[in-house]
Amino acid sequence: MGRKVHPYAFRIGAIKGWNAKWFAEKDFSASLLEDLKLRKGIKQKYTDAGISNIEIERQANKVAVTVATSRPGIVIGRGGQRVDEMRKFLEELAGKRIQLNIHEIGQPELDAFLVARSVADQMEKRIAYRRAMKQAMFRTRQAGARGIKIACAGRLGGVEIARREVMHDGRVPLHTIRADIDYGFAEARTALGRIGVKVWIYRGDILPETKPENEDLSAAEMTPPATEAAAAVTEAAKPVEQVKPRTRKKADETVAPAAATSTAAVTEDKPKRTTARRAQTNTEET
């Protein structure tokens, strides 16, 4: 399933969270369409801002929108002028009060969508696709990624028959749930048609949090003592081990007196035989 399912959706609940953080018992479809309008409007208006991810959180009468971008200066503008423009634009789309937050991406080379967008932009500028893919892989590996895979599909090089080219460097374990894998997709609109670019970036493992030693000690202290049944079993087991040598000693003691009585009987029989022999010799002499 690792090669069929979206890598982000495959890890939701384990190491990833939801991009839309709200719950609605009623009007779910209206809220969902509103989210799609907000995302589409932001990406269309700020195509050059390097926007990678948009998180939406709903409250009572307010919608909080967090925009992750690699170029916060384009989104914010001078003195926050463009932020106010974006807020008004989104409020017109949604018809609600909107709180706008801007989050800067520290390393754009480790963001799969931004890498895919950069490769697609180079293809639109008529740069060779192999060169663009290799440069993107080199920069991502230099930034600290453990592995990267790039796949381009379409009329590569202007050929008549479309094909798919894949390049990878390092490890990309798609089936490992604890692996932090980012996935991005972008399209290059060339004169001969569209070319799809997919990028997978393996940024390392996200391991579960280890419990501190104090909690382990408290857990050990809170464990209940042994039950009465277990104590009875242990007490019953102890004399069983001591019975065996005692029985052997009794057997030895019973054998020893028997041997003593048999030797005594033999010694008693000897003088009787000697007296009988003396009586026979005396009768013969007479």
From TrEMBL:
GO (cellular component) term, any one: cytosolic small ribosomal subunit
Region spans: Disordered: 214-286
Any one GO molecular function term: mRNA binding
Segments of skewed composition (Polar residues): 277-286
Keyword match Transmembrane helix: no
Bias (Low complexity) ranges: 219-239, 254-266
InterPro entries: KH_dom (IPR004087), KH_dom-like_a/b (IPR015946), KH_dom_type_2 (IPR004044), KH_sf_prok-type (IPR009019), Ribosomal_S3_C_sf (IPR036419), Ribosomal_uS3 (IPR057258), Ribosomal_uS3_bac-typ (IPR005704), Ribosomal_uS3_C (IPR001351)
Listed GO biological process terms: translation
Database matches in CDD domains: KH-II_30S_S3
Domain (KH type-2): residue spans on this chain: 38-106
UniProtKB keywords: Ribonucleoprotein, Ribosomal protein, RNA-binding, rRNA-binding
Pfam families per UniProt: KH_2, Ribosomal_S3_C
Domain of life: Bacteria
NAD is among the record's keywords: no
NCBIfam families, alphabetized: rpsC_bact
Similarity comment text for this entry: Belongs to the universal ribosomal protein uS3 family.
Subunit structure of this chain's protein: Part of the 30S ribosomal subunit. Forms a tight complex with proteins S10 and S14.
Function: Binds the lower part of the 30S subunit head. Binds mRNA in the 70S ribosome, positioning it for translation.
This protein's name: Small ribosomal subunit protein uS3
